[in-house]
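DM between two lab members

TW: hey, do you still have the CIR protein entry open?
JB: yeah, one sec
JB: this one, 268 aa:
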Amino acid sequence: YSAIKTISGYFYEDENDGTKTKVANEAIDNYCHYGDTSEKGNCNNEYYKMTSSGVIHLLEKLKNYGLDDDKLAEYGILWLIYKLNIKKNNNFAKLNDFYTEYIETNNDYNNKINGNDGLTYKKIIDKKNDLMDMDINEIFKLEAPFNILYFLYHEISDQKSFCKEYSKYAAKFVDQFKKLNEDSNNIIDSSFSQILSTLLNDHNNLINKYCKGSCSFSSISQVPPKKKPVESSLETSEGTSSSSSTLNTVIPVLSTFAIPVFLVVSYK
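TW: and the structure you got?
JB:
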């Protein structure tokens, strides 16, 4: 999560009006290469172009930790949806809208992550292509537990600080995770389910490191994902309505809890 924190600090929006993007590290311009021109290295201070560049930066840094391509894709998507979710006036209906405009057209995604071998950055993101046509608000559900973990990994330094000051945030993660565990998108072999599993492992690693013998907080388990149902068109329509109802309940909680907390620390 230290690499994620580093890239997040490369650029951000002005907190006063949300219309001006500010650059804290000019390296964010390194992976902005659009169109037929050979010119590269300038995102023109455009938030979404910098977000696209940031995904490549993140994949590059995380590769140094020995993560496989699937895990790289998961963290790349999590960071991407975080940056999209905090952007005011974000009008993307699906993740594919961003993908088409800012990933497919960015020539740097055609470069291979290991130089002459391995997958291109685009092929890594493509490993999670089943998320691309989902309603983006459904994908944003994953951002809240990621946000909480990001905050905890950034702030916690020892067992005492966790038990005294931050265990309530871990408890909030558990609440959000349990809801997502029962979510209709949590289907076996889906990217949604795989990302949820990764978030769970990150949570449990944190708990095992800072809570053993020091405070009454334990790791949690994941309920096996649902098998993909065979539904009639009527049942599918009813399921969509139910999912939207659940989303309307969950999202206000996330916007008042997780995001403000994260914004406090992300630009230190």
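TW: got it. The beta strands are 11-13, 21-23. The radius of gyration is 19 Å.
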